[in-house]
Design goal:
The structure holds two protein chains of two kinds.
Chain A lengths: L4 E3 L2 E4 L5 E6 L6 E8 L3 E9 L2 E4 L8 E7 L2 E6 L8 E8 L8 E2 L3 E5 L1
Parallel strand pairs in A: 2-11
Antiparallel strand pairs in A: 1-3, 3-8, 4-5, 4-9, 5-6, 7-8, 9-10, 9-11
Chain B lengths: L2 E3 L4 E5 L4 E3 L2 E3 L4 E8 L5 E7 L5 E3 L5 E5 L4 E6 L8 E9 L5 E3 L3 E6 L1
Parallel strand pairs in B: 2-12
Antiparallel strand pairs in B: 1-4, 3-9, 5-6, 5-10, 7-8, 8-9, 10-11, 10-12
The chains are: A mainly beta, B mainly beta.
């Protein structure tokens, strides 16, 4: 397996624009996590899915953020409208057993909102 | 709720010296404990994990960690570090109730020649 694949690797957008981040988890993994990493706040869990169903989205900072998982092999994180404070590295991770096992991380998407 | 505290944000150390990165956690339920490493511009990768059994856990690259339930700690150690160990290290706790991983703030290990 190629691992968790995220796209794009880098995204620069203007404030107010819609941004969509994409993730392909490892096949057979039932759990998918979206994290945000910043210098100030470290690594924050935004939302996670189990079998394509959102289980906990309490980490999603605002209504401008939304995440979907239409099938077992694809998830998106959307920010609309984007703001400069959304600038961060966004990681997707997948795991076969949730918190009881290793989470495999993608390379991340570095988002810059200007 | 669970939380993870990594007491040192940066640890400078000379090559071939021993190192310990500290991690303390709090949780009201049984936990699983992990250490991850992040190299520059990379995602996180697993170093080692404690799920149950022996409290001394050995991981990749010569690292090991010891689970201490009474002190709620899971410190990471390596007897002799290399320049290539320079990276950010994250301690994480998972609980069997919420199925979420909570990460500490990270410790930047800087190995100097």
């Amino acid at each position: 397996d190629a691992g968790v694949i995220q796209s794009p690797r880098h995204e620069v957008t203007e404030m107010g624009q819609e941004v969509t981040l994409r993730c392909k988890p490892i096949s057979g993994h039932d759990y998918l996590f979206w994290y945000r990493q910043t210098m100030m706040r470290g690594l924050e869990l935004l939302i996670y899915f189990n079998n394509n169903v959102p289980i906990d989205d309490s980490g999603m900072p605002e209504d401008r953020f939304s995440a979907k998982m239409p099938n077992a092999s694809f998830s998106t994180l959307k920010i609309q409208p984007s703001e400069p404070r959304d600038s961060a590295v966004y990681f997707c991770a997948s795991s076969p057993l949730g918190a009881a096992d290793e989470a495999f991380f993608g390379q991340g998407t570095r988002l810059t909102v200007v | 709720a669970q939380s993870v505290t990594q007491l040192d944000s940066q640890v400078p150390v000379f090559e071939e010296a021993p190192v310990e990165l500290r991690c303390n956690y709090s949780s009201s339920v049984s936990v699983y404990l992990f250490w991850y490493v992040q190299y520059p511009n990379q995602g996180l990768q697993l170093l080692l994990k404690y799920l149950s059994g022996s409290t001394l856990v050995k991981g990749i690259n010569g690292f090991e960690a010891e689970f201490n339930k009474s002190q709620t700690s899971f410190h990471l150690r390596k007897p002799s570090v290399h320049i290539s160990d320079t990276a950010e290290y994250f301690c994480a706790v998972g609980d069997n109730a919420g199925n979420m991983l909570t990460f500490g703030g990270g410790t930047r290990l800087m190995v100097k020649p």
